[in-house]
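FW: tagging you since you asked about this chain on Friday. Here's the raw sequence from the shared folder, copied in full. Didn't touch anything.
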Amino acid sequence: MHTKKEVRQSLTYHLTAEEISNPYLLIAQFFDISDLSDHLDFLDEWKEHVITDQLYTVENCPANLLHEHRHILKLLEAAWLLRKTGKISPLIYPELKECLLEKQKEELAGCSCLLNEEELLNPYLVFRLLFQTAGLESYREELRDWLEESFSKEGSSISYEDLATTYKFLKKLYQAAWLIYSKELQRDLS
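HL: got it, structure written out here
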């Protein structure tokens, strides 16, 4: 019989012990590499390569794709660890709710916000939703398929529906993680 710690470590095989004990490090690392807009642009470009069967060539710098893929997996694993924390954003007084919603929307300015009002007020809800839809291993497999399709000359075997669903959830993940990063982690790091 495996302990909870052993199971958690086996499911998060891209993370170090320090990252497992503090998944917020991964959110900070993800956005220290690039900001939300750059990550979303890269995701859009990657999706286009998969959809159109464009081979990811030297001009596109395949190392960047492998690097981004690795960090997306780490962000997913961080979200998986944080999904059950039960953490919610600070208590919001009704008179402050609209103000906070406006501030959260401003944080996501420049990208089409996929988060609903409840998720904007508590981005941790996105982590729970993400893994109610599919398991961590399913997301890993889907992203591995995306990676293989990006380097393959063969036609895409990924259904458009699966691709669109994963793409939408990754965008929501990025947006929720960005709100946590900008509201909680940058304050803690300064």
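FW: Residues 4-189 form one domain.
HL: agreed, and The mean pLDDT is 81.
FW: great, closing this out.
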